Amino acid sequence: GNSVTQMEGPVTLSEEAFLTINCTYTATGYPSLFWYVQYPGEGLQLLLKATKADDKGSNKGFEATYRKETTSFHLEKGSVQVSDSAVYFCALRTSGSRLTFGEGTQLTVNP
Amino acid sequence: DAGVIQSPRHEVTEMGQEVTLRCKPISGHDYLFWYRQTMMRGLELLIYFNNNVPIDDSGMPEDRFSAKMPNASFSTLKIQPSEPRDSAVYFCASSSRDRGLAVMNTEAFFGQGTRLTVV
Lengths: 111, 119
Description:
The complex is a heterodimer.
Chain A (H helix, E strand, L loop, with lengths): L2 E4 L4 E4 L4 E3 L1 E4 L5 E7 L5 E7 L5 E4 L2 E4 L9 E3 L8 E8 L5 E3 L3 E6 L1
Parallel strand pairs in A: 2-12
Antiparallel strand pairs in A: 1-4, 3-9, 5-6, 5-10, 7-8, 8-9, 10-11, 10-12
Chain B lengths: L4 E3 L2 E4 L5 E6 L6 E8 L3 E9 L2 E4 L8 E7 L2 E6 L8 E8 L13 E2 L3 E5 L1
Parallel strand pairs in B: 2-11
Antiparallel strand pairs in B: 1-3, 3-8, 4-5, 4-9, 5-6, 7-8, 9-10, 9-11
């Protein structure tokens, strides 16, 4: 079956630090890959996505590249802000149409 | 569009009572998902619908849980009887098939969730 594995949290960084949150997946076929963000007390929001190998998704300074050879979709940001503090979820979707999520990674950015 | 609308936002109930959670998906979306989020188990897919028909309910924990989608603009998740271990945040999400894209390429849009506490 399909599965998503994220690096364990929580992750705590200082403002302007570089962020990487690792995500690897197992899937039948070639899935689409997503990063969602959940701010406190809210639902999940799409952050970025990539639908085929070597695609790079980007939004709000965050980037992730779909790497088929390593089955990975790591999230990066060059300089984090306090407002980026949230829980980040990696997810995949295949032709079967259900979304499969990773466990989530809590990020805290301190001023 | 106002997005996916869930009600109530918070629900506190006593063990043994029936609980009904409601969801209005985004107009035009033909997939609807119910998720449950807890600290212990993370985000779990309970059930999803396509064109109002349940496609996969393998995530529904037990017979106490049931979900319906009587029309394209409304779905309910019912727990009867409720138990303290059902305490969680329940999310509804919807998605569509964009013209020219496979459904797998489209993201799901989430509601704000219903925080359920069973005491």
